[in-house]
Amino acid sequence: MDPESCQYSKEHEWFYLEDDTCVMGITEFAQDELGEVVFVELPEVGTEVEAGNEIGTIESVKAVSEVFTAISGVVVEVNELLKDMPEKINEDPLGEGWLAKIKLSAPSELDQLMDAKQYAEFTAHG
Q: How far is it, in rounded angstroms, from Cα 23 to Cα 3?
């Protein structure tokens, strides 16, 4: 994914819109803060998710962190690669390290997210 074409949440997730579905993952900043990722728990395909709710966890050598979604919809795909290779989140958080694809139920929620420039400013200020 091109970082410039993604939108970002304050919880350090990125969202990339493909038609009516968003691919989501955690940002470079988030994976750097987490350190070495050793385990990922993702939602089941078919799970209905609501903006602001936890949809999974990422375990690193430092801590276990919840993954929240900033959009509502239905999980249509999860990144099965991460079950055997969770380190892909560290190696390529905006590519092979994506987490889930969510079919949007409320596309207007995307308007609440930051663009790349806003996210860069957000992370620069703590």
A: 13
Check: CB of residue 89 under 8 Å from CB of residue 82. yes
Q: Which long-range contacts (CB under 8 A, 24 or more apart) does 76-82 make?
A: 76/21, 76/45, 76/101, 76/102, 76/103, 77/45, 77/101, 78/42, 78/43, 78/44, 78/45, 79/42, 82/40, 82/42
- For the whole model, what pTM was predicted? 0.95
Question: Closest by alpha carbon to 76, among 23, 112, 40, 34?
Answer: 23
The tokens 């350190």 sit on which residue?
Answer: 35
List of domains in the chain = 3-107 (2.40.50.100)
Alpha helical stretches, state H, the chain: 28-34, 81-84, 88-91, 116-124
DSSP run (H or E) holding 104: strand 100-104
Distance spanning both ends of the chain, measured CA to CA = 24
Q: Which residue has the tokens 């009516």?
A: 20
Average pLDDT over residues 20-37: 96
List, for residues 50-70, the tens digit of each pLDDT value.
999 999 999 999 999 999 999
